[in-house]
Amino acid sequence: MSDRFFFHYEDTPVASATGETVLDSLVRSGVEVPSSCRAGACQSCLVRAREGSVPAQARKGLRSGQIQAGEFLACQCPAAPDLVLERAGRRPEVPALVAEVEPLRGDVLRVWVEPLEPLGWKAGQFIHLIRPDGLFRAYSISNTPESGRMELHVARLMGGAMSGWLACAVGEKVTLRGPLGECVYAPPSPETPLLLAGTGTGLSPLLGVLRDAMAQGHQGPIELLWGSPVSSRLYLLDELLELASSVPQLSVVVSALDNDAELAGLTETPLPDLFCTPDRPWRDLEVFLCGNAELVRTLKKKAYLAGATLARIHSDPFEAAQD
Amino acid sequence: MSGAGGRLPAEGTKPIMTASLYERLGGEAAVDAAVDIFYRKVLADDRISQFFDTVDMDAQRAKQKAFLTFAFGGPNQYGGRDMRTAHAKMSLTEAHFDAVMENLGATLTELNVPEELIGEAAAIALSVKDDVLNR
């Protein structure tokens, strides 16, 4: 004896009954949702819940970014009338204001952006910042949401369309899409050892995770490894070293391949060598990797091969824009 | 009965002979234990690492989990057509397939799975050989 009801998918009612999975009902209604194994393993049937109850079983194996976005596996979720669903991958867009632009050393801008409509985020996630003409770039959020303004670190690139525009964009209206991303502080326990590693403005989300960890009273050791080919690009070096001296469980190692003897607290050891030390408790670590895409991918693989749990390696590789 | 390795069950328990391969291997927990061992092995195996060394490691791990679920006789509705389509553009050779089979066997050996069960899982994996090699 099963109850018949409707739930909603992309603003359309879908006929369903108790005992069915979301996937069963969608397929029967002719909705095109990809599926393959129907056993919660292949992740083809990802769907997003705007509202409604989704059991933990239907989120098994998903990354933090997907879970934060409300995504789940349709084949593992019992259909229910309170479900308001849409296709996976869609993200909200809100208008925002470029409130302040502060040049830092190393050709990096600290850009403060204020959403003009409510937009929840966690430090370490990223947003797509969309210019009025539609050009957009992804930037990580390096602060927690209390102030209502996002702190972005933007590298000024030679001929960079967005970074050049942002340098003079105070007062301009933009649109924000998101938030997205895997680099969010959500460890299994406050004692979990954290390893944060990145290059250049990859520091932004790492700093976000660090700030969130401290705000939430993280107890375990935190190690931050930050590298740059040239020391002149180490845009927040002094602030980082000061942070390290004031937070007992935080250890910061900054690496620059050029030998700038004038800057204290630097090493020339390349980042991968700092990262792959054999004495790390890889199985217990929560690892965060951000910055140069190739390096991030390499370090992710190294961490996994060394024994880290893949789902506990959070990486947001920075890919160069092609437009 | 002797050649099949079975024995009469104790009263009230599920008959050993009729438990599925998946159950006898240990179900989803066994797949979870095997996935990381298998994935790390193929990443380190120069004969085939290029097929597994992809940009999205999490997606690749999910594929391996689905494959092992299938090979363990688990609840997985992969058909031959899915296997064929998934591998069609990879120009796989017999040697590639054999290397994967070798790593599968080594994974199960490392987990102390009895020989007969390794054989049963291997047979399932072998059953899609022609589909995987697109022949």
What does this structure look like?
The complex is a heterodimer of chains A (323) and B (135). By secondary structure, chain A is an alpha/beta fold. Chain A is 19% helix and 32% strand. Chain A has helices spanning 22-28, 64-68, 161-167, 203-215, 237-246, 271-275, 293-305; strands at residues 4-9, 12-17, 46-51, 71-73, 84-87, 93-104, 108-115, 126-130, 136-140, 150-155, 173-180, 194-199, 222-228, 250-256, 266-267, 286-292, 313-318. The longest helix of chain A has 13 residues, at 203-215. With 135 residues, chain B is an all-alpha fold. Chain B is built from eight helices and no strands. The A-B interface holds A 36-39, 41-43, 61, 63, 297, 300-301, 304-305, 309-311, 313 and B 36, 39-40, 43-44, 53, 55, 57-59, 61-63, 65-66, 69-70, 74-78, 82.
Short structural description:
The complex is a heterodimer of chains A (323) and B (135). Chain A has helices at 22-28, 64-68, 161-167, 203-215, 237-246, 271-275, 293-305; strands spanning 4-9, 12-17, 46-51, 71-73, 84-87, 93-104, 108-115, 126-130, 136-140, 150-155, 173-180, 194-199, 222-228, 250-256, 266-267, 286-292, 313-318.
H/E topology pattern of chain B: HHHHHHHH
Count of helix runs of chain B:
8
- Got a strand count of chain B? 0
What percentage of amino acids of chain B are in beta strands? under 5%
Helical percentage of chain B: 55-70%
Structural class of chain B: mainly alpha
Mean pLDDT of chain A: 92
Shape of chain B: globular
Q: What profile does the largest beta sheet of chain A have? A: 6 strands, antiparallel
Percentage of residues in DSSP E strands of chain A: 25-35%
- What is the global morphology of chain A? globular
Largest sheet, spatial ordering of strands of chain A: 9-8-11-6-7-10
**Poorly predicted runs of 5 or more residues of chain A:** none
